[in-house]
Amino acid sequence: MELWFTEQHTDNVTFSIKVDRQVYSGQSEFQRIDLFDSLEFGRFLTLDGYMMLTEKDEFIYHEMIVHVPMNVLPDVKNVLVIGGGDGGAVRELVRYPSIEKIDLVEIDAKVIEVCKKYLPQTACKLDDPRVSIHYADGLKFVRSKKNEYDLIIVDSTDPFGPGEGLFTKEFYGNCFKALTEKGAMVNQHESPFYPKDAVAMQRAHKRIIDSFPISRVYQAHIPTYPSGHWLFGFASKNYHPIENFDAVAWKKRELKTNYYNDKIHVGAFALPNYVKELLEEV
Ligand code: SAM
C-alpha angle with apex 67: 175 to 190, nearest 5 degrees? Predict the structure, then answer.
């Protein structure tokens, strides 16, 4: 009998991956956690039935959420990752020797436990000595922080369930306060493609532009996310993601990447007209 994982992307669209076997299934205090093996995408993680990452395409998301801000901001030392319990963002961050401290704030300890056991491709650097893991709600964690982080990466689930608070005005305002003067926040900014997703994306975008003086959106192609067209938000106090991009420093680092490069960095901020219109409407 064939086994398929199917995610409902809209009332009229589903996305399916043929599954070889189910590796893990469990219910945590916050969500249902499943891991499957597939031939096309390798092992993949879902939370409450929503795709989080696959071994085959996770590099796109994790490289774009980390290398874009890391090559704009100078001398990043303290980083806060909110969500990101799979460890993919941390794996990319620890490649930068300038970083002294990474606080990873994940609400669900079970996600980290399961990813360490079954997803070593992403979780491989969670034991790096610079990483401190906090099992907490990111919304509450940032409330008490002031002028502490050079970079905040919001690697959250979607704007419902445990992730809902990470798309609020209160949260973005507290992230602004938690950042140093050279600081920036990058978040997964959802998809612009299907109308229901676009409305949620616009709502969050409006809150970010109301909270930060500099705010730009960039994009990547992520095959296993709804529509494949995914956005990221870059919001900062002083640094502009293109004007302050240091391509020379990036090349000198000699980091091997599969998606990110200097041309992609600049090109990712060139948005299709329909996305520009959605962002201007807010
Ligand atoms: N790349 C993924 C995506 O966009 O689908 C996100 C991956 S990561 C697994 C998302 C993590 O955010 C989950 O492990 C979830 O438990 C965590 N999370 C959700 N809400 C949170 C909150 N309020 N505070 C901290 N972590 C949260």
Answer: 60
**Whether the predicted pLDDT of 131 surpasses 90:** yes
Provide the pLDDT for residue 1.
87
- Provide the whole-model pTM: 0.98
Best of 31, 107, 115, 222 for a ligand 1 pocket test (most atoms within 8 Å of beta carbon): 107
pLDDT at 80 over 90: yes
Instruction: List all residues whose CB is within 6 A of at least one atom of ligand 1.
Output: 47, 52-53, 61, 82-86, 105-108, 111, 137-139, 155-157, 162-163, 165-166, 188
ipTM summary value: 0.97
Domain 58-281 has CATH 3.40.50.800: no
Q: What is the arithmetic mean of pLDDT over 218-224? A: 98
Mean pLDDT of the chain: 97
Q: Which CATH number fits domain 3-54: 2.30.140.10, 2.40.30.70, 2.60.120.260, 3.40.30.10?
A: 2.30.140.10
